[in-house]
Write a structure and sequence with these properties.
single chain; about 180 residues; mainly alpha
Length: about 180
Amino acid sequence: MDREDTRALEEFLDCPSLDTFPPLFLVLHPRVHRFFAVRGCQADSDELAQDVLLSVYHHGAEVRDRRLFYGWIFQVARNRFLQYLREKKRPEGFEFTAIGEAALAAAQGADPLQDYSFARLIANVDPLARQILTLRFVDELDYDEIAFALGIPAGTVKWKVFDAKQRLRAFLTKGKR
């Protein structure tokens, strides 16, 4: 996060108002929009992002630990995504997993991650690891923010990232032989 982003966040948290929210909205909207788009909600990602940002406007000042603000936002986004799935607005090609969420569903139209092959690389890891890897490397959250967003210990997040990296390294090394 650069200085302007940090300043927008601090100003809003210090004095939540209609004057301080627009700069924060400009900072957060692209990240929250991408959160939904890479999970197969391309068509509804604007509406879903606006729902999340409306929650940020109304409840953002209630966040106790400012260092976990992004984790809180992505927790709100994840809850909104699960609500979206329960409403049976599943994207075409979406498969509902045992824990209620696939970290990356097949996106309608062009997959924003296709150039990176990220979705294909993480397709074979368990659903929780896919969620964690997506939050870490796509949504750019740190370990504590991911732990907060998913309601799991930070040690579990670190272990899942480490384990997934090891498995991917072995898979990629095996493919080169």
